[in-house]
Specification:
Blueprint lengths: L5 E7 L11 E4 L2 E11 L2 E15 L6 E15 L5 H5 L2 E3 L8 H11 L28 H4 L20
Parallel strand pairs: 5-6
Antiparallel strand pairs: 1-3, 2-4, 3-4, 4-5
Length: 164
């Protein structure tokens, strides 16, 4: 590797990583680019970005929405086995001559994906009784529902008081 580094750029399909996630409807292929730079003998840095669009399903109201995901890739790789100190410094051991960047990029994307995607911060979710989207309409389920054990108390203030 040259001392100035080697540039990388390409497209990576990561949709298979999210097959079992119910909140990720679709993820477009990533556009990744960056630079691999030799810092010391057997130590190199990978710096770059990965960008894609993710179609999520809101965890509160189940509405589908798309959000852009910009991920930074910053890793330090070593071709020699790591000491305990280097492991704590988060170096990654790569014994092969050629570096496969796909797992590094995939890991960065997975770690930056929304854990609980919301269509909006103030999402009100669905009514637990009728399933209405509370962001779109107001339901009257809670106003109509009265616990039958407390039904008699609902008329407590409606009846006139009689004096003895």
């Amino acid at each position: 590797m040259k001392s100035g580094g080697v540039a990388f750029a390409g497209t990576l399909d990561v949709s298979s990583l999210f097959r079992n996630r119910k909140d990720v409807v679709h993820i477009a292929p990533l556009q990744a680019e960056g630079m691999v730079t030799m810092k010391r003998p057997n130590i190199c840095e990978v710096n770059g970005t990965a960008t894609t669009n993710v179609q999520y399903r809101c965890v509160r109201c189940l509405t589908e929405f798309t959000r852009r995901l910009d991920t930074s890739i910053d890793e330090v790789l070593s071709r020699v086995p790591l000491t305990e100190e280097q492991e704590e410094a988060e170096l990654i051991y790569v014994p092969e001559e050629a570096i496969d960047l796909d797992p590094l990029i995939e890991q960065a994307v997975v770690l930056n994906l929304d854990v609980q995607p919301l269509c909006q911060e103030e999402c009100r979710g669905l009514c637990s009784v009728c399933g209405a989207d509370l962001n779109v309409a107001t339901c009257v389920c809670h106003e109509q529902q009265v616990d039958p054990r407390l039904q008699a108390l609902s008329q407590f203030y409606d009846t006139p008081k009689t004096e003895h």
